[in-house]
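input
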Amino acid sequence: MDPREELAALRRLKELEAKAGPLTGRPAADRDAKRRLKSTPDQLRAFSKGTTFGFSDEIDAAGAAVETGFGNLFKRATGQKPAYGMGDAYGAVMDANKNADNLFAEKHPVQNIALQVAGGAVGPGMASAARWVGGARSLGSATLRSGAVGAVTGAVAGAGNASGDVGERASGAGRGAVMGAVIGGALPAAGRAAQTGGRMVDNATGGRIGTLFGGHEARAVQRLSEALRADGVDAPTITRLTREWVATGAPPPNLMNVAGQNTKKLVRLAGMKEGDATNTLAGIGGRYRENMPDAARRVAMPLAPGEARGAPQVALAAREGREVAAENAYRGPYREQTLMEPETSSALRDNAGRAAIRRARSAAEARRNYDQVQELDGLLAGDFEDGTTPIMAGTVDRLRIAMRNRAEDLGQRPASRDIAGGLRDRAADIDNSLDRIPGIQPARGNYRAHSEFIDGVENVGPNIFKQSADEFAPQFEAIQPTAMNAGREGARIGARQVLTDAFGQGPRQTRTMIDKVADGADPARNLRSLFGERADGFIAAVRNIRRAANDANFVDPTLGAKTSNVQADAQAANDVLGVLTGQGLGVLIQKLRGGLTLTNEEAAIIAQIATDLPTNAAARLAAPRAAGRQLTGNLFRRAGVGATPALASSGTAQN
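output
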């Protein structure tokens, strides 16, 4: 209406009021409601309708009723008569707003819905609802959450937009809940489809569109973050898993080693793109495979701390040390005279005994110990009697060694093993007689410790992978713990040598031994018998080395089959298309599964972050997003939940 015409209409209304008297009751309330309506733009009413889930008219009418009530109190206190009551005020404002809302919706339907959606996005609780829906790990979860939000907000909006009594409001709430659940449940799928379409367009334009909203870095970070969330891996989990990995002694991991299959599939997909991603990932499997032997040897060395030499060098040094110690320790005690014990004389009386005496004499002569040579010649002549013949302790020990060596020689031939067993028993009898010579015991203890150490290095430790746990554990435990625990420490060095030798034979042999250590029940039990708690850390380190190599092989684009089962893009970004089977969609779906929506630039960034140290990768993933990207993302999430009550209310409103 032209302003001049409106002014003329008001003038005529005043003239009529002057003739008929002032308006009262509902007509007066309708007049004031129209005046009140003129002060509120249609757009503001549409926006507030979304913000209040359709209750803006009720709120405005309630405000008008309260104002009228207070005004009437003042009028009565000053002797004036109120023109109308609170009920007329409420009804008039409600009707005026409803009529104006319907007229605005009819003339500007798009503007009306858009303003209500915007209002709904900033409504009470919608920020929390948007975060809750956005935090879903899968499309199915997001659909359920969005449907639940839609049902609640749709019910409220349906009640707010209905007219009439409580029954009609309840009916509107029911219709709104159903529509809200349907609309809310459909929004995540629609958003995912729009996201996929946008990525396709952006890819076709070389990424120019996406760069305006945060660039390739932001989009790559988003993809990785979605994959990590699907794996159930967040920043604290990355930190914890990295610490546990490093604590085993294995080489430091990279991000994909502490992530799950969704992340690894995404990295594998990135490696299939041309450009820098391929340069980063091509050959990574081979590099890890070549480094695996050295990494395995490094984690094996701490099993025997304090000794960096190999077992052969250690055993040789122990033998030399034993001889030097024996020369010093036995020099005095060996000359101590004792009487021939029955065990010794009995062991020497037959041909086998005389053969041992001759062997002992040759050894004494070689060492230029002519006192022993003289005593041994007397024994060969039969010049000895039990308990009466004096003999040096050193000569008796030389006889014991000769008898033992003779037994070892015969034990190499199957036909003479029984004889060898008898000679061992004789050597043990002579050894028992030496135990009764007090002066020689310290030297014998020192010699025995050296011998047990050498035996542990050469005979016990190397059986770690040859024997079952039921065989190995008793053998190891049978080693008598000496003051220096020499025998058991020697077994540890011998077992470590077996491991480092196997790890040093090349990638294939190393992998075989790694699998044996990582998965074998008997090797694990034997390792625990030998090394205690250190064994668990070693086994965990070996498993981590294997996992790093397996992960590298999986993402290496030059290895394995490039089939659809590793095309994570279909799962990560295009779930909604998986249910579409219409004609013409097959080619589109296949292209999407081939990674059409992943740009080369994004792939390069994903490859860089995934193969970096977890701490560096986590910092990059947590870096602040570009303002445009963050603002756009929040806007779309908030608009998604805000659209539900707006669309639901438009379908349940009553004129």
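quick obs: The chain has a mean pLDDT of 76.
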